TrEMBL record:
Signal peptide: none annotated. This is FAD/FMN-containing dehydrogenase. The keyword Oxidoreductase applies. GO terms for molecular function: FAD binding; oxidoreductase activity. SUPFAM superfamilies: FAD-binding/transporter-associated domain-like. Transmembrane segments: none annotated. Belongs to the oxygen-dependent FAD-linked oxidoreductase family. It holds the Pfam family FAD_binding_4. The keyword Iron does not apply. Residues 47-217 form the FAD-binding PCMH-type domain. PANTHER family: BINDING OXIDOREDUCTASE, PUTATIVE (AFU_ORTHOLOGUE AFUA_1G17690)-RELATED (PTHR42973), FAD-BINDING PCMH-TYPE DOMAIN-CONTAINING PROTEIN (PTHR42973:SF39). Its cofactor is FAD. It comes from Actinacidiphila guanduensis.
Length: 472
């Protein structure tokens, strides 16, 4: 325990750890213990969690014991599952609770609901739900954890424009509060906490299980077109106006990609500079093919994967990388994507840009994503027409040029930027101050969240996030 700071290295702390080990079924690990590094490793290999203590929770009781221990010792609590864990700059010196052992999945076909533990990924839910003809509002990357994704809103690349955010379909949540007590939260028994959790992204409690509604969808038409990057400006100009005419049953996004030379990529894409047009349609294949025809005709594809698919192949729309990577990231919401925005976009991503980033994407939102659900929640991005997300992959020596280009990209698009963003896309460096977080949520929503934070977590135990401090 020699590397622990002074306040977490005394005999009282050591005695407390020993007592905690006796109360918890899962592992309780200190730096240097076997398995500690594995519990702390995040999806982004450039960012490392350095907690004082790790509790590998096996059930809600373990989570409660860990939270009580943290509160008793004045430690902030960080939560990690097996998904795309975000590591914030202030994530050190915490008590880290890992949830990947909370792995239960239960489907109620009659009620069209799914209940999962906090450690479950969408890739585990999709095939089980599909056996019952049900489609949850999963995201573009099936490797993402269900709970974290849903607490941040949850943006589906297929169902979002017709059914809203994943958060809009939550029925109940089992949580551990900042004082270590357990609750089941529903819109009926605690509408304020229900509202704050869904969109508040981990600021109010630890969610140990969640139940949500699923839709009777079994198939869709979708996939991607990978077009030569040299044709990006022409195709993007067409895409910009084409997507405006799509109905709610269709969803699209585009990404300028400089792909690496990897054997896991199809031969035409290895080392290629491409524009990846993503498209998904709820309806028959002939109708979907007719809708995407103008983009198919805009340039000869290097690869065309558009086809009718079972719903569980949702990940084939974006083909996000499944394995952990060393990367930098940034995003912002856009109020518009007009001709001037397109010019700035292509200047920073086009053939002459020397862009070092692997992917710079633009997602069209709209439809039901703009509408308040029947049971309100704190999701902040309703009415936002576009979100752009960029990331670069590389080792420590490549970070500086990638980060510099990211800053240039964000600055170039700032004239059309919105204060709001899709919460799950807000990176660790995108909102680093309370003022940034306030702008993201908007003054009224932020004020209500802050007041509720004072009620539910007055000591700000859950602050290793884009934090909403308790109202003073």
């Amino acid at each position: 325990m020699s590397d622990l700071s002074h306040e977490f290295s005394g005999s009282e702390f050591r005695t407390g750890v020993t007592e905690l080990q006796g109360r918890v079924r899962g592992p309780v690990l200190l730096p240097g213990d076997h398995g500690f590094v594995e519990e702390c490793t995040a999806y982004n290999l450039l960012r490392t969690l350095r907690p004082v203590l790790v509790v590998g929770a096996t059930d809600a009781g373990d989570v409660a014991a860990a939270v009580r221990f943290a509160a008793d010792h004045g430690m902030p609590v960080a939560i990690k599952n097996r998904g795309h864990q975000m590591v914030l700059p202030d994530a050190d010196r915490t008590l880290l609770i890992t949830t990947h052992r909370l792995s239960g999945i239960a489907v109620n076909p009659e009620a069209r609901t799914v209940r999962v533990g906090a450690g479950v990924r969408w890739s585990e839910v999709l095939p089980i739900a599909a056996r019952h003809g049900l489609a949850p509002l999963a995201g573009s990357a099936p490797g993402v954890g269900v709970v974290g994704y849903t607490l941040g809103g949850g943006l589906s690349p297929l169902l979002g424009r017709s059914a809203g955010y994943a958060a809009d379909h939550v029925r109940s949540m089992d949580v551990i509060m900042a004082d270590g007590t357990a609750r089941t939260v529903t819109p009926e028994n605690d509408p304020d906490l229900y509202w704050a959790l869904l969109g508040g992204k981990g600021n109010f409690a630890v969610v140990t299980a969640i139940e949500f509604g699923a839709l009777p969808v079994t198939r869709f038409y979708g996939g991607g077109l990978w077009l030569p990057g040299e044709r990006a400006k022409h195709v993007l100009s067409l895409w910009r106006t084409w997507q405006e005419e799509l109905g709610r049953e269709s969803t699209t996004s585009v990404a300028v990609q400089r792909l690496p030379e990897l054997p896991t990529l199809p031969e035409p894409l290895r080392g290629a500079f491409v524009l990846h047009v993503r498209f998904a349609h709820l309806g028959d294949a002939a109708q979907g093919a007719a809708l995407i025809a103008p983009l198919r005709a805009a340039a000869t594809p290097l690869l065309d994967t558009l086809a009718e698919r079972p719903y569980e192949q949702l990940g084939e729309i974006h083909l996000d990388p499944p394995a952990p990577l060393p990367y930098v990231e940034g995003s912002l919401g856009l109020r518009t994507f007009g001709a001037d925005t397109l010019a700035a976009f292509t200047e920073l991503t086009g053939p002459e840009s020397d862009c070092p980033l692997v992917t710079v994407e633009l997602r069209a939102l709209g439809g039901a994503l703009d509408e308040e659900p029947a049971v309100p929640n704190a999701v902040a991005s309703r009415g936002l027409p576009f979100v752009t997300f960029a990331f670069g992959v590389g080792g420590p020596d490549e970070v500086a040029p990638m980060e510099e280009h990211l800053k240039s990209y964000v600055h170039a698009l700032s004239p059309w930027a919105d204060d709001r963003n899709v919460t799950n896309f807000v990176g660790p460096d995108d909102a680093t101050t309370p003022a940034d977080v306030r702008r993201h949520y908007g003054a009224d929503r932020y004020a209500r969240l802050s007041v509720l934070k004072r009620r539910y977590d007055p000591d700000n135990v859950f602050r290793v996030n884009h934090n909403i401090p308790p109202a003073s």
